[in-house]
Amino acid sequence: MWKTGISKIEPNHIVTRGYRQEDLIGSVPFASVFFLLLNGKMPDKKEAQMIDALITSSVDHGITPPTTHAARLVASAGVPLPTAVAAGILAVGDVHGGAIEEGARILQEWVKIGKEKGWSHDMTARELLKQIRDSGKRMPGFGHRIHTKDPRTRRLFDLARDLGFNREHVELSVAIEREFASKKALPINVDGAIAAIISDMGFDWRLGKAFFLIGRVAGMIAHVYEEMTSEKPMRRMCTQETEYDGPWERPPDK
Amino acid sequence: MWKTGISKIEPNHIVTRGYRQEDLIGSVPFASVFFLLLNGKMPDKKEAQMIDALITSSVDHGITPPTTHAARLVASAGVPLPTAVAAGILAVGDVHGGAIEEGARILQEWVKIGKEKGWSHDMTARELLKQIRDSGKRMPGFGHRIHTKDPRTRRLFDLARDLGFNREHVELSVAIEREFASKKALPINVDGAIAAIISDMGFDWRLGKAFFLIGRVAGMIAHVYEEMTSEKPMRRMCTQETEYDGPWERPPDK
Amino acid sequence: MWKTGISKIEPNHIVTRGYRQEDLIGSVPFASVFFLLLNGKMPDKKEAQMIDALITSSVDHGITPPTTHAARLVASAGVPLPTAVAAGILAVGDVHGGAIEEGARILQEWVKIGKEKGWSHDMTARELLKQIRDSGKRMPGFGHRIHTKDPRTRRLFDLARDLGFNREHVELSVAIEREFASKKALPINVDGAIAAIISDMGFDWRLGKAFFLIGRVAGMIAHVYEEMTSEKPMRRMCTQETEYDGPWERPPDK
Amino acid sequence: MWKTGISKIEPNHIVTRGYRQEDLIGSVPFASVFFLLLNGKMPDKKEAQMIDALITSSVDHGITPPTTHAARLVASAGVPLPTAVAAGILAVGDVHGGAIEEGARILQEWVKIGKEKGWSHDMTARELLKQIRDSGKRMPGFGHRIHTKDPRTRRLFDLARDLGFNREHVELSVAIEREFASKKALPINVDGAIAAIISDMGFDWRLGKAFFLIGRVAGMIAHVYEEMTSEKPMRRMCTQETEYDGPWERPPDK
């Protein structure tokens, strides 16, 4: 016997989170349906606009990220479209998309600590970074290997401000960025922005990768389709020189 | 050297299908961004509403379909959320979501044949079904194991009519349904409806599974999260009686 | 530029871990080639027999474990064989196969601690269990939901003794079992046995899931093939009653 | 209710294909257990040696094939080992490993046709190639992008001859190679060799990808472990220059 709070399926009657599906289809935007699925309640207008922006911000970053790269590579081996997209999703890991989850976890933990201690956000940021550095780790969601001023971050934070989601988690993020800047600039990246905003929207940090995942699936479908229709199978995908640093060829044992 | 018509990535500058991402985020609904990604052009208002409805119609059908079932099962083994969702996507196959792809392929082929021959849709439907039956196959996208009148199909067709996407492929579908009804009712199911409508919107049938996939990912994320947060790991997921019909236990050889 | 210590590929010349592949094929048993791949050196006779036994012990436990269950479920949706097997592999997680990895990690850590402290294995076992209990966790690799005396464990330990791999990690495992028995019997299961033996063979605990994985792939291939050739697609795989405990159906908002 | 001819699981009693698992572990080589799982019967000595050679011949071809490439790429994103290996398996597709399946299908079909017609293998090879060419396809399992004389093929065929598996399917393969040579040399590659030999061993062609898959899993585990332990996460895996051939950046609509 299964138990679920999400779906009720009966003949000619499909209910999701309490809504008949025919009342959702074409009446509630897909991003809001996603919010409803995660949250169990319909978003208000501001939440609806914010969630839509969040998932769009992850759709595409070209071919080189492991997600899209893996999806195209696997597509080139002659598999069905969903198989290639799934391979790409498997690359949503601790260092690719994972900064949203871990970043949100840390922000949620330290906003709570800061409140209990009665600290300012700047004070909390300092303590937080000190502890992360002492444990030999890095704060996820800051810095980017290509962008120094990620246009997606700026846009998301502008929206968050306009819609009222620039609350304590966004503020703590900005305080962390300030604290970094006092030494070496390490601006909030798009993962860090999503981490802060979903925290201010009240989402559990364990859903962090989900926002990236659903957006990126849209982009990967386009890339897989382009690969299937425009490129040769098993093409050489990159300079394939390999340096062998293992043992020299040995005579067979015995 | 990669080549792509989808993305241009430069420092602080991310362009997708010709649009700066900061101009898409929060300004263009996610479903329209998905359309843009697939099509290379922005949808008009009617296309935007239709594509949004199409992907919402696949979000959720409870736990029992192989997608959601596999995702929850794999989640129960203690893996990261994206790994569980990917397992569910792998179940988007020829008989689960595949009716959209194969249905669209057949409709697109026969609309063309019908036109060349100058046939009515009823005539085309008859010939099409005859040939499918003769080859021992079944027309995908008709009939459902639970629903006799799928509320999603009705809703999608109403929208298609209102928005002007009830063209020759939808008409051929309805003619096929009529032809079935003359013998044994086998109503268009939600896959069949999507197949017809995306064909009338001008999509390549090879993208058929993509519409189902992106919608279902939203539902699977909710189900995986519910599994991770509400259920015990490795729980018994269903009556697990197994009947062994292999050989009787043998003494070891030798 | 890639760098690898595993393979050197040149025209008509394939070298793996220093051996020409034509010298491995048909001359070195597959399980030994697996050992060579992981270790970079050829196993001696005892290692060769032990590794073969270890990977065989994971091949099959019927349909109900998440691996095999997921593989058959996904196969029933009409996907290629490798896609279904991959879905099964995704279910090798923290609570399914993961006891090998985590168990080996703990054994390797505490054998070292015990040595430094000059403790007996019984003493180490007591301290180890105390600390695990205090942290609210459970010792992985002990107890089984079906077997009280797993025949695979017994067989593996007998072999380990005969081949000389019952060293300090196996001894610590047995001491833990003894310590459990003084309260409530919780015998070493097959995962626990593999964890102890690979530790005594000198393997890194981070390879723990690999031994289970490669064995289980063999079993899953057989199950997927059986599913594809003997069962109907999309069959109902288990009692599919679902209890909905979400909100009652609501009138659509607005 | 499940039904299976593979496994019987009862408390303290695990039977696979009629054998108690404790009688298989450490007594029957893993490759023979794989044969048993697929076939339902224990291999004889010759079958045991041949199957072992077959699966070893697929273990490793360096980093550049889509399987291993995808596995390392996904590993670099910070996911568990099984997740990365699964991504690699997803790349076992129609043009990567698939030549075994499709090659075996064609050989099995044409050996039958040749017999019915009373043709020589040379005659059958000519007709077969003519028909494949006429349909615009290519014979899978011949030619290699790197090797002109694949050392694995030679070794497998030598073993097949010594063990008596060079029967009609191997003979037809050799006849096809001869027929190619009369125009342009296109030697049997390792996939073609496996396709021919498994056909002479009596395996269903639908299992073709399975032999490649299980071997390659061994190699991928080693490569994933090397990636996890020797390389930086999210490293740049190849020259990542991308040429954008999409539309020029447009002003946002509206």
Written overview of the protein:
The structure is a homotetramer of 254-residue chains. By secondary structure, chain A is mainly alpha-helical. Chain A has two domains: 1-43, no CATH class; 59-231, Cytochrome P450-Terp, domain 2 (Cytochrome p450-Terp, domain 2), CATH 1.10.230. Helices cover 56% and strands 6% of the residues of chain A. A three-stranded antiparallel beta sheet of chain A has the order 2-3-4. The longest helix of chain A has 23 residues, at 208-230. The model of chain A has no long low-confidence stretch (mean pLDDT 94). At the A-D interface, helix 4 and helix 5 of A face helix 4 and helix 5 of D. Strand 1 (2-4) of chain A pairs parallel with strand 5 of chain C, so a sheet runs across the interface.
